[in-house]
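Example 3.
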Amino acid sequence: MSDVQSVLGGASFDGAVKVTEAGVQGMITLRGDLGSEALAKAVKSAVGLAVPAPLAVKSGAKGAVAWMSPDELLLTVPYDQAEAAVAKLTKALADEHHLAVNVSDARAVFTLSGDAVRDVLAKGTPADVSPAGFKPGVIRRSQLGLVAAAFWMTSDTEVTVVCFRSVGEYMYNWLCTAAKPGTLPIVS
Amino acid sequence: MLLLTCPNCGVEADETELSAGGQAHLKRFAAGSSDDEFESYLFHRSNAKGVHFERWRHSYGCGKWFLAARDTNTLEVFGTYPAQTPEPPKDLIAAIKKKRPDWKGFAK
């Protein structure tokens, strides 16, 4: 087995919020009819969770599942289990029109933690990141900086950001710049 | 700034999250049509100052196409609806007529 490297080798930056490159993460793109029973069953057996509602993300002990579009889900599992999970999904959905692909190596994952995570995101995305529109359990796909990204809150002070690996370094630099100490509005 | 609500995911998306796809509800003329029809299908577009129906793609979001009715002059958005709609919904047309009594109506 090759020595798997994440895009920035787990780099981290302590600024107004802490930016960490989260390392490798197993990710599976699953496309198909999200209303079908077979798909719901397959997702349940892969990550132990039900198909989420639009814009929702759920996580459990086995992994997480996020709603990406009306016909697409993103499943996350431990990196070394992704291939097996894809094989299982493909087998379970053999009779349905679907697509299950291991995209782990195509992605970069970052974690932002700190009280000001919303302010950091708000510097570079048109998406609503106020508590009214963005809270734990909600996933948004939008623009961050100049590139496409998906982000969701894992707690009130922690955000996971996913982007293409090809722009991983850009994203890290952008996040570090946005999280530079002294550049955020002072909240009294 | 233009905000359109994507009917596919329900997000009120900013213009920067979207890609414009030009005029909506074009009738396609392909093999078997006359040269004039084909030329008009390929090149002729309405350039309305006022009510306009457009195609948009939520490219940074869910990636799906949808249609929108808006005023090109004031940027007022009348509504958005799924891309799988052959012509503007009747209630949307009625709502636009109420706001723009001078509007001549949707022309194919």
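The mean pLDDT of chain B is 94. Residues 90-99 of chain B form the longest helix (10 residues).
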